[in-house]
Amino acid sequence: RFPEGLIYEDNPFFFELLFKSKSFSIDRRQLYNYRVNVQKSITKDSGKNYSDMLTIMNLIEKLLKQQPFYDNIKDEFLFYRLKHTLRSFKNVNPKYERDYFNKIQQEFLNIDMLYYNEAVLSQQLYYPLYCSVRNDNYLQYLIKKWMKKV
């Protein structure tokens, strides 16, 4: 089942579906369409619900940690988490940006980087933004953003 009342709710569903499947195959045909800009969509405001991404990523991590292969994919999951969290942050409505920045910063400060390969992480597209959110205050982030350094 999809977690109710959250945006990005399909993400943990598909991870769980993969883990419970005995086998799967890939079909490259387009079998459904993703609708954007639907007036009554929960994602329409690009605002306060964007912090749901943090909840969703924690749900996925919980599912992954139950798998025997978690240690083999933990770095890839971290990249996935950072990419999706920071991409949602870049799209958040400016009136919610500071609050979301603070929430993401708390999440990032809870990540034990000694557990991951930071040399590989540093090659990722979102690494400069990750560093800024993790290490700067909101004003420093805004200055870097204004100077186009993140």
Brief overview, please?
The chain has 150 residues and is mostly helical.
The count of DSSP E runs of length 2 or more, i.e. the number of strands, is 0
Order of helices and strands: HHHHHHH
Q: What is the CA-CA span between the terminal residues?
A: 37 Å
Q: DSSP helix count?
A: 7
* Poorly predicted regions: none
Oligomer: single chain
Strand residue percentage: under 5%
Rg calc = 17 Å
Can you give the helix content as a percent range? 55-70%
- What's the pLDDT, averaged over the residues? 87
Shape: globular
Q: Could you give a short account of the major beta sheet?
A: none
Structural class: mainly alpha
Could you please describe the fold and organization of this structure?
By secondary structure, this protein is mostly helical. Helices cover 56% and strands 0% of the residues. The protein is globular. The chain starts with 9 loop residues before the first helix and ends with a helix. The relative contact order is 0.11.
What attributes does this structure have?
7 helices; 56% helix; 0% strand
